[in-house]
Amino acid sequence: MTKHIITLCLLLCLIKTNAQSNMYDNYHAVNSTQVRTYQGMSDEDLKLKAYSEYLKEQNFQKYFSLADEAYKRNDYYSCISYSQNALETGYESPYIYYLRGQSYLNLKETSLAKKNFRKAKRLGDLNSKQILNNWRSIKKLQL
Q: Nearest CA to 99 among 62, 88, 78?
């Protein structure tokens, strides 16, 4: 519970800082010229935005865990579905793309597997880098 409260507080601080750093985002026409004006967010709006981000993170963690469990059960279709739900929250992880790549590989969907391994590699996953380096050998094993 303390971890969640700290996360929520950090998100609130980040959002407030971001809102203040983007002070001049809105434009209003004045005598046919563009003038930047400041419209700050109310504390209530900041709290709602922080809570929304907190819920997105929680949903990501939930779907991420479900995808991992499905993969361990060799339920590759569910793994792909749960990982897609996790990614739709707006968060991403190299491991989730690695799981998707492995799932697609086990389903013999090599082009989708390679696409996910590439994304995982771009995000820093070393296992995906190794898989892509040995891709020709892996494809031969799949045939």
A: 78
